[in-house]
Amino acid sequence: MEKLYEGKSKICYSTKNENELKIFFKNDVTAFNSLKKASYESKGLLTAKISNIIFKYLEKNGVKTHTIKVLDEQNVLVKKLKMFPLEIIIRNVAAGSIVKRLGIEQGTAFDKPIFEICYKNDTYGDPLINDDHCVVLNLATVKQLEEIKKVTLKINQLLIELFKQINIKVVDFKIELGLDKDNNICLGDEISPDTCRFWDQNNRKLDKDCFREDLDDITAIYLIILEKLESLNI
Ligand code: ADP
Ligand code: TMP
Ligand code: ASP
């Protein structure tokens, strides 16, 4: 299998089928556009397992995802998607960049989810853009944006319900979507504590902020999330 792309936390390999990819979850973790880097044994296994459980749950609840088959603890066979060069973010509670950008107090719960679009481009630091940028710059059509927003809000609702069962708040998250060979919008990439903010009842951070802010050993924290999700037997 040929390595097609190595990103910050995953590697994509070609397979015998041109419409499929194998994705390997690395042990590397980065933050602040790779200014901070580390590697932890078992980190890739933890994000892969967590993401696989979440994708299985979403698929069961009517969300189209890229997953074809979990191959082993760190490798997943997926549909090769034509990815939108976008990072779609939902915020239920203020944290991270919105706190710095708009001066909102961390922990402020929003009356309705805030939907944000960023242009996925590390050179420019994944800048925040709006619908017009997407359409005029041919990143997505008006119709695709409508569907992206609809599916993202559905994923948010499903994630909130899932994590409520284990007493965890979904503060915010980032997803990436793409088109399959039949032009259906599908959820790609991953959903894990690397790409979300999760807080427990005491607002203890159970996600990559533990690495960003040097709060905790992320493998111990991610294991808490994995064990709680596994207890739900999805
Ligand atoms: P990054 O590119 O941000 O460093 P990763 O290390 O997570 O990220 O690399 C995974 C890459 O694979 C990302 O660029 C992501 O957009 C892409 N990707 C994820 N799922 C799919 C898919 N099903 N088909 C094609 N590309 C995908
Ligand atoms: P932010 O507050 O830093 O903008 O992040 C919002 C959400 O998106 C948060 O859950 C972390 C996630 N995220 C990623 O998954 N990848 C990224 O590159 C960034 C900047 C954020
Ligand atoms: N994913 C980005 C990076 O790897 C930023 C972050 O998640 O904080 O640098």
Automatic annotation (TrEMBL):
Pfam families: SAICAR_synt (PF01259). Its EC number is 6.3.2.6. Keywords: ATP-binding, Ligase, Nucleotide-binding, Purine biosynthesis. Pathway: Purine metabolism; IMP biosynthesis via de novo pathway; 5-amino-1-(5-phospho-D-ribosyl)imidazole-4-carboxamide from 5-amino-1-(5-phospho-D-ribosyl)imidazole-4-carboxylate: step 1/2. It comes from the Bacteria. CDD domains: SAICAR_synt_PurC. One of its GO terms (biological process) is cobalamin biosynthetic process. Residues 3-220 form the SAICAR synthetase/ADE2 N-terminal domain. InterPro entries: SAICAR_synt/ADE2_N (IPR028923), SAICAR_synt_PurC (IPR033934), SAICAR_synth (IPR001636), SAICAR_synthetase (IPR050089), SAICAR_synthetase_CS (IPR018236). PROSITE patterns: SAICAR_SYNTHETASE_1. It catalyses: 5-amino-1-(5-phospho-D-ribosyl)imidazole-4-carboxylate + L-aspartate + ATP = (2S)-2-[5-amino-1-(5-phospho-beta-D-ribosyl)imidazole-4-carboxamido]succinate + ADP + phosphate + 2 H(+). One of its GO terms (molecular function) is ATP binding. HAMAP family: SAICAR_synth. PANTHER family: MULTIFUNCTIONAL PROTEIN ADE2 (PTHR43599), SI:DKEY-6E2.2 (PTHR43599:SF3). Belongs to the SAICAR synthetase family. This is Phosphoribosylaminoimidazole-succinocarboxamide synthase.
